[in-house]
Design brief:
With 97 residues, this protein is mainly beta. It has one domain: Ubiquitin-like (UB roll) (Roll). The protein contains one helix and six strands. Strands 2-1-6-5 form a four-stranded mixed sheet, with no helix packed on it. It is flat. The N and C termini lie far apart (38 Å).
Length: 97
C-alpha cells in the first residue's frame, strides 16, 4: 500500500486567503456533528453563500442536504442555533452551529 505525505503550504494558503471577496457575498459555514460509518461522532462543515450579514442565528437560513450512510440516503436539515464571526475567513463571514 502506498502512502501520500501531506504538507502544509502556508505561502499558497496566504495567497488564497488574500483573494478579494465581493462585499455583497457572505460565506456562512455550518458546523455540525454526525455519526460516521464507525458510529463515532464526526465534525463536518458545509458552506453557503448569502447576500446579507446576519446579526443572529435566527436570520441564517436552514441548510438541507442528502447524506449517504451505508446503503441508505438520509435527508439532513441543519437549523442554526448559534452565530460566531469566522476566525478563519475573517471579514463579515460567519460560523454557525
Amino acid at each position: 500500500m502506498s502512502t501520500t505525505s501531506l504538507a502544509s503550504n502556508s505561502a499558497f494558503m496566504a495567497r488564497y486567503m488574500a483573494l478579494e471577496q465581493p462585499r455583497d457575498k457572505i460565506m456562512v459555514t455550518y458546523v455540525y456533528i454526525h455519526p460516521g460509518n464507525d458510529n463515532l461522532a464526526h465534525f463536518s462543515g458545509k458552506t453557503k453563500v448569502i447576500d446579507f450579514v446576519p446579526k443572529q442565528a435566527s436570520e441564517v437560513p436552514f441548510f438541507d442536504f442528502a447524506l449517504v450512510t451505508g446503503d441508505s440516503l438520509v435527508e439532513v436539515f441543519i437549523r442554526p442555533v448559534q452565530l460566531y464571526a469566522d476566525p478563519f475567513r475573517g471579514g463579515d463571514n460567519k460560523l454557525v452551529l
